[in-house]
Amino acid sequence: MVRLGKLPDDVELVAKQVVQAAFNVHCELGPGLLESVYEKCMTIELTRMGLSLKRQLNLPIKFRGTTIDGGLRIDLLVSDCVIVELKSVDQLAPIHEAQLLTYLKLANVRLGFLINFNVSLIKDGIKRMIH
């Protein structure tokens, strides 16, 4: 039985690999590039680690029995259990956190990472969020 708030070990393992991939990409490239570059590099790194992933995954919205294409796209869905939203901005804003929480809810996924690569130290750009 899973305790409320505790994630399964396999999800935690994927989470550690996502963080490691972000460290690896940031260590090699540093800040200042476009989000799309970091997304492609994270894809390469996570695939190299043996993880499955989906990129720019369409996220439909279900409202009162109707499915709506709202144009929402998840940057990365890793191993069908972790959403990764990538940014390359001066500073994360509350709207970025709200976006990730909404994606977690709509996709029925519990764990997500908001990663801003436009920082000197990547540890300052990683925010783990649980729905």
TrEMBL record:
This is GxxExxY protein. It comes from the Bacteria. It comes from Aeoliella mucimassa. InterPro entries: GxxExxY (IPR026350).
